[in-house]
Amino acid sequence: MLPKFKRVLLKLSGEALLGEQHNGDPFNPKIIEQYAHDIKLVTDLGVQVAIVIGGGNIYRGMNEADSGIERAHGDYMGMLATVINAMAMQAMLEKIGVYTRLQSAINMEQVAEPYIRRKALRHLEKGRVVIFGAGTGNPYFTTDTAGSLRAIEMKADVILKGTRVDGIYTADPEKDPAAVKYEKITFQDCISNNLKVMDMTAFTLCMENKLPIIVFDMNRPGNLLQVVQGMNVGTLVS
Ligand code: UDP
């Protein structure tokens, strides 16, 4: 089946890397391995893939009152956490023969290229998976915002938000058994129904730039391929 998209930005949550088991390790290698295989299926189709990965499994910037750490300082710690996840993802992809480049929004040239938009575009054109680490490089933002921003900069056709739930529901499916999944929804309806797809900054960036979002369950093997083939997986926001 032909892919529906030529270039996608995959936003992976850090927390989803934990998988089902919580044994204290920041990530479950089986999950990263599964992600790598799923990404390979998509690159094998010729789809260009850029990835933004979160850091919530390792560190998340918190309220200063709770952590005792100044907000901006904690946010930089969170951004560094995303680089650890990005390196893990990179290692697993390269292990199965996918060419990758890691670009970081915070300079650390021993482990990553600096973020250079035009260079990233060139990598994508050459079929390399580009992983963007360190979020936007700025405190007070999230990796969802980094995902939206990089997707727009890379002129991706869509942002694929891989999570542990299989789409957007009318209510929290874990709390309300009557909750129903949307197959499609407009940006405006997400706002009117107060549905939290991404944080407001990330969501607004997508809406203003007419960048569609697909929310889907990344922890289900094969799902990413189905999304890229345009099958009815997850929820499309457009
Ligand atoms: N962060 C930041 N600026 C960014 C991206 C991330 O300050 O552009 C920090 C922020 O503290 C955030 C943490 O990095 O809580 C980890 O990212 P996020 O919570 O988005 O990860 P996820 O929820 O996807 O695992």
Write structural notes for this entry.
There is one protein chain. Strands 4-3-5-2-1-6-8-9-7 form a nine-stranded mixed β-sheet, with helices on both faces. It starts with 6 loop residues before the first strand and ends with a strand. It is built from eight helices and nine strands. Helix 1 links the parallel strand 1 (7-12) and strand 2 (48-53). Helix 1 packs across helix 3 (71-95) and helix 5 (143-153) packs parallel to helix 7 (200-208). By secondary structure, it is an alpha/beta fold. The model has no long low-confidence stretch (mean pLDDT 95). It has helices at residues 29-43, 64-67, 71-95, 117-125, 143-153, 187-192, 200-208, 223-228; strands at 7-12, 48-53, 100-104, 113-114, 129-133, 158-163, 184-185, 213-217, 235-237. It has one domain: Acetylglutamate kinase-like (Carbamate kinase, 3-Layer(aba) Sandwich), CATH 3.40.1160.10. The protein binds uridine-5'-diphosphate. Uridine-5'-diphosphate (UDP) binds next to helix 3 and helix 5. It comes from Sediminibacterium ginsengisoli. Keywords: ATP-binding, Cytoplasm, Kinase, Nucleotide-binding, Pyrimidine biosynthesis, Transferase.
